[in-house]
Design a protein that fits this description.
The complex is a heterodimer of chains A (453) and B (249). Chain A is of the alpha/beta class and 453 residues long. Chain A contains eleven helices and 19 strands. In chain A, helix 9 packs across helix 10. The radius of gyration of chain A is 22 Å and the shape is globular. Chain B has one domain: 3-Layer(aba) Sandwich (Rossmann fold). Chain B contains eight helices and twelve strands. In chain B, a hairpin with a 2-residue loop joins strand 11 and strand 12. Chain B is globular, with a radius of gyration of 18 Å. The chains are: A alpha/beta (453), B alpha/beta (249).
């Protein structure tokens, strides 16, 4: 691909401040398509690009992006075709583990799946990189049955992803298969000489009665920036249990727009937990769609950020059927000049009687420069429902602090311990002890609390 | 052990609550402070343990001969002062045993000692929890989260026994306890007390003093100690109330 040379010939270096990325997106697409090994999605990709171009990147005038300015992401120019060369070793992967050596893991480096760095012990389950699976006739039809059917019409980042995705994780869990070990999907970026743009795409299909736990994390090892625009579609069939945990603990030179869609059939359970500790700017668009009765949906989030980081959680739960429950619990701790956004939407259709929807967002501001914009919203058209929502913003309780100090624990540790306790509540839905410990460790590390777990 | 001289204290940016308290507690002694609501009993315990919501405006608090007024709460704890809270704080995600381990090791670190070896810690946890009839799974529960009033108080006494302070201040430890829990807590305190340590009981009712025999009983009213006597004073207060003393003062 000769994308790299295009940047200099077209002189975009000089125009970096004028939405360089938008111009690249328009100009690179035909080259991108020409270099793909499959072409059966080309029509979809081209129309997705048109849709994206018609609307463009959201600005602060857009109600959904009122508090989150994307300018710092889109003013940059990126390399769309990262080099696949890298020096990631087993040892580097080991260092990313935290008490999860027993888990299975799948490692992508610079957009390429590396099975020699991965470890998968489950035999009966199909897992591939999405692009690899596309080339196999036996999977192509299965994938197309689900692919892009849960995404939302109105999300330009999903359009952009459809136009440009070329990497990702695909897993199909057959009927009544319970996968014992969690699977950690790593996306690593390394050895890139320029800022790099990734469009990753994940597809998880969990058939009737099956169970799986996925952990996803992105890691930029370079001093240049990465911008990852990720789309994940999760399908949870009757009596299935699909859990997806996002560990957003990337370097300060990374941007992430995560678009996750969960479509649930009757009697299914699905959880998406989002733990946001790192990254310069993270936007999470999380959508749950109910397509049957007796569904349970869980969304938990812990955000701990400082400096000039921004983490934005946008959630939408579409209660389209009766007798379904949804539970959202988001905790935020903001230091430095960091900025948090929470915008939660619960939409209850008029036929969705006996809906039980809970939504809570609690925040602690640690410094004068930190801020949080929190907007919990309910839109209810049914009359026999139980819905609650609320948000709080506060500081640490002085009496609690005194209690710990009177027991001999120094002020700094006491603050850390109380913050840990505040956030910990949102970890209740992690039912794998090793993962619970891992997230606890990450949280304690971020809060600089010393604890033995 | 503890010598309080002419102690005046107020709520930061608020009213004066302690208006010249004098009190001396020697090693091996148990003192009880009683008094009507609003007398300043809990303020006195908070000020001795270093709560920064209160400001000392005059007087001294000497602990083993050293003025501790400028010390942070954790420094006072390291010196050997313990306070059992009337309303212990809930800390989700931190187990009782982990919390106690952290408290003990922080204190040892401050005294220039090594951390307590894990085996020794386990043995100590086992011994003290048996004394207080605490079940093993209780130690793994999140600190005070979802505890009943009695469990919280018992947990406070458990922490006291584990930390083994020189001076233990028990602030309204009897409130919210049924008679069985009261007996267990009192047993714990009686096992704790010896010739080298001291106990300061803050209580509204005489009931606790049936189980823990004090050497001295003081009546605190309107920020001053207005009467001191032996344990018979507590019985007299139970019978007559506080009004007769307040009129005299």
């Amino acid at each position: 691909m000769n994308i790299n040379t295009n940047i200099s010939t077209l002189g975009w270096e000089e125009k970096k401040d004028t939405m360089a990325l938008l111009e690249q997106i328009t100009n690179f697409h035909s080259d991108f398509l020409a270099n793909l090994e499959h072409d059966f999605l080309n029509d979809k990709r081209i129309s997705a690009l048109k849709k994206f171009e018609n609307i463009g990147f959201p600005t602060k005038k857009d109600e959904e992006y009122k508090y989150t300015n994307l300018r710092e992401i889109i003013k940059r120019a990126y390399n769309f075709a990262p080099t696949s060369e890298h020096t990631i070793s087993k040892e580097i992967i080991d260092n990313l583990h935290l008490g999860e050596e027993d888990f299975d893991y799948v490692v992508f480096v610079n957009g390429v799946l590396h099975k020699e760095l991965s470890k998968i012990s489950v035999g009966e389950v199909e897992y591939y990189s999405l692009n690899e699976a596309f080339y196999k006739e036996e999977y192509k039809d299965k994938i197309l049955q689900y692919f892009d059917t849960a995404t939302s019409e109105k999300n330009v980042f999903a359009d952009l992803n459809l136009a440009y995705f070329n990497t990702g994780f695909f897993m199909h869990v057959p009927k009544n298969t319970k996968i014992e070990k969690p699977i950690h999907v790593f996306y690593l970026s390394q050895n890139q000489s320029e800022d790099t743009f990734y469009n990753t795409r994940n597809l998880l299909v969990v058939e009737t009665g099956a169970e799986v736990e996925i952990i996803e994390s992105h890691h930029n090892f370079d001093s240049g920036f990465t911008f990852t625009n990720s789309v994940t579609e999760i399908f949870s069939f009757p009596n299935a249990k699909a859990d997806w945990h996002k560990l957003q603990n990337d370097s300060e030179n990374s941007y992430l727009v995560d678009n996750t869609y969960v479509k649930q059939e009757k009697d299914s359970l699905a959880t998406v937990n989002t733990f946001s500790f790192g990254g310069k700017l993270v936007r999470n668009n999380l959508v749950f769609l109910h397509n049957g009765e007796n569904i349970n949906s869980f969304m938990n989030g812990i955000t701990v950020i400082s400096d000039k980081q921004l983490v934005d959680h946008h959630t939408e739960v579409h209660h389209n059927f009766p007798h379904c429950n949804s539970y959202q619990n988001y905790k935020g701790i903001f230091g430095g000049k960091s900025h948090g956004v929470f915008n939660g939407n619960v939409l209850v259709d008029k036929i969705a009687q006996k809906t039980d929807a809970y939504q809570q967002n609690n925040n602690i501001l640690l410094s004068e420069g930190a801020k949080i914009d929190s907007k919990p919203q309910l839109l209810i058209f049914a009359d026999d429902v139980k819905c609650s929502h609320g948000c709080t913003v506060g500081q640490l309780d002085e009496e609690s602090l005194f209690y710990l100090r009177a027991r001999g624990i120094g002020e700094k540790d006491a603050r850390g311990l109380l913050l840990y306790a505040f956030a910990h509540d949102a970890m209740k839905n992690i039912d794998i002890p090793a993962l619970h410990t891992k997230v606890s460790k990450l949280l304690a590390e971020k809060l600089e609390v010393e604890m033995t777990f | 052990m503890l010598k309080i001289k002419n102690l005046h204290a107020k709520v930061v940016e608020g009213a004066e609550i302690l208006k010249g308290v004098n009190l001396e507690i020697n090693p091996g002694e148990v003192h009880a402070i009683m008094g009507p609501n609003g007398a300043g009993k809990s303020t006195l315990s908070s000020v001795i343990s270093g709560n920064e919501n209160f400001e000392v405006t005059d007087g001294e608090i000497l602990f083993e001969g050293e003025n501790i007024i400028e010390d942070a709460p954790e420094e006072r704890a390291h010196k050997g002062i313990f306070m059992s809270f009337q309303y212990p704080v809930e800390i989700p995600g931190v187990s009782v045993s982990n919390f106690i381990r952290a408290a003990i090791n922080e204190t040892r670190k401050a005294r220039g000692q090594e951390e307590m070896p894990a085996r020794e810690m386990m043995a100590l946890l086992k011994e003290k929890s048996q004394t207080l009839e605490i079940k093993k799974d209780f130690l793994n529960r999140s600190l005070n989260e979802g505890f009943s009033g009695g469990e919280k108080k018992r947990n406070e006494i458990f922490q006291m026994m584990m930390l083994d302070p020189k001076l233990a201040i028990l602030d309204e430890t009897d409130s919210g306890l049924d008679i069985d829990a009261l007996r267990i807590v009192a047993d714990g305190v009686n096992k704790f007390r010896n010739q080298n340590n001291s106990v300061l009981l803050i209580t509204h009712y005489q009931r606790l003093l049936n189980y823990i025999q004090p050497d001295y009983v003081h009546v605190l009213a309107d920020g001053k100690i207005i009467k001191t006597g032996d344990k018979s004073l507590a019985l007299e207060l139970e019978e007559k109330g506080y009004d007769w003393l307040l009129e005299k003062a």
